[in-house]
Structure formats: C-alpha cells, structure tokens
Amino acid sequence: MTRSERASAEVDSPLSDIVYQVLGNERRRFVLELLTQQEEPIDIGTLAERVASLENDQSVGEISYDQRKSVYTGLYQNHLPLMERAGLIRSENGWDRIEITDQGSEIQQRLNGADEQSRTSNVLYVALSAFGIGLFLGSWFSVRTLVPAVGFVQGVGFGLSLLAVGYVLTK
C-alpha cells in the first residue's frame, strides 16, 4: 500500500487520527452539530455567528463584533480546513457554501448516541444507588428483624450503590 493510499484510507476510516483530532476541539464539535441541523449549505459568516452564540451562551443578536470576528478567523484559518481534510465537511466557492458530508453526519450521530447512552447509564446508576440507600436505611430502622433475608440484600444493595456512586463520580 502506498503512502497516499494509506493516507486516503485513514481519512476514510470513521475513527482515524485526524477525526479524533477534529473532535478534540469544542468549536469543531459545534460546527458538526450546526451543520447536521442544516438542510442547505451555509456560509462562513452565518456559521461563525451561530458558533459564537453557542460558545458564549448568547443569542445570535447578542454576539459582539469581536466575538464573531474571533470565531470567524479561527474557522477560516484553522478549523474548517482541518475538517475538510478529514472529510467531515465540504465547501464550494471558498467558504460560501459549507455542508456536512456523509462521514461527518455519521460521526455526529455517533456523538449524539454516546450522549444518550451516557444519560441512560447515569439514570441506571442513580436508581441503583437509591435502591441501595433505601435498603441501608431500612436496616437502620430495624426492618431487618422483620424479614431475615433483608440483611443479605441490604449488604448487596449497599455495595452496589457504592460502586454506582463511585462510577458516576469518576466519569
């Protein structure tokens, strides 16, 4: 395999190093998110306003000239060329018509899926923790004497709750 074939294969792979490099920056993740929401190509000026809005947690109308200019410059000089080399976006006429590629859409869907999976896991761990704490409190108030098996279940539940809390705190 030649060097150019390897480079092409790396960019075509959804998990290539350059894709990880792209996703390592919040501004570029915002660009992917915004382009996924677009049905039509978008120009760099509009994209810069929307990214600045997300970065500063303000509406587009509240963004200052300096905030917009800073994002525009970063997109123009650094972020968009890197994203285009990674095959996540494409552009026509300079940066007048920017759109997401199929690979970019696939990566964004994976990111959205990871967020959803993380939220589901957190709910599960909180529920396990609540169950364990409930069993612990039940034994604290001598419920254990009413049902002998509660002591064992209480120990297991408390252990699971500690593991779940530890996992959520270390994420």
What fraction of residues sit in β-strands? under 5%
Strand order of the largest sheet: 1-2
Instruction: Give the number of domains.
Output: 2
Q: Distance N terminus to C terminus?
A: 40 Å
Into which percent range does the helicity of residues fall?
A: over 70%
How many beta strands in the DSSP annotation? Answer: 2
Q: Using the alpha-carbon principal axes, give the shape.
A: elongated
Mean pLDDT: 77
Structural class: mainly alpha
Secondary-structure element string? HHHHHEEHH
Low-pLDDT sequence parts: 1-12
Largest sheet: 2 strands, antiparallel
Give the C-alpha Rg.
Answer: 24 Å
Number of helices: 7
SSE blueprint and pairings:
Blueprint: H1 3-12, H2 17-23, H3 26-37, H4 44-56, H5 65-85, E1 89-92, E2 97-100, H6 102-140, H7 150-170
Antiparallel strand pairs: 1-2
Helix pairs in contact: 3-4, 4-5, 6-7
